């Protein structure tokens, strides 16, 4: 059944691709629609034109070519979405609108066009602007405390990835972000303590292991370090 569904999907895509239209975009249209759109709280999609053809950058793909249906509407196979450029009449801001299967459904304004310099929290994190990254992640948590973009385990793994590369200060900054996001978790303090210890700062390691033990008296690693530290 799954194989049949997959084959049917590929068939639809092949038909759609063959129906892609060649549009002679005006410079005004290109200027209005080119740019960065906020796809999710921590993701963007970049729209651009090359040789009068529409392309998208999204999730690491540098040149996604959508199936063009008309000047404003296109289908993106990788997203499995039909999108349309729209302008909100009151704010005059541009959006990418998801076109639903039901043609009678009301128009929605889904992905806001932002400035070309706009960065998501993860983009700030990648560029090592940790204060801006934290600011963005805290805003995401404010809107949705269970968001997949601020998972404690994912951020912790990123910190340890930097530790494995011996990027100690960067690891510390990443773990600090996790502490700010999850101040009631003993694990985030344990990880921050580990980073400080590997960086040679035993005092900060002690302080954070102490906090970890306060939150979880069963944290054996924290307890062992604190006992050893106090003996020296």
UniProtKB/TrEMBL annotation:
Domain of life from the UniProt record: Bacteria
UniProt keywords, alphabetically: Signal, TPR repeat
InterPro entries: TPR-like_helical_dom_sf, TPR_rpt
KW Signal (keyword) present: yes
Signal peptide: 1-20
Swiss-Prot/TrEMBL TPR repeat ranges: 186-219
Name of this protein: Tetratricopeptide repeat protein
Organism field: Formosa maritima
Lineage: Bacteria, Pseudomonadati, Bacteroidota, Flavobacteriia, Flavobacteriales
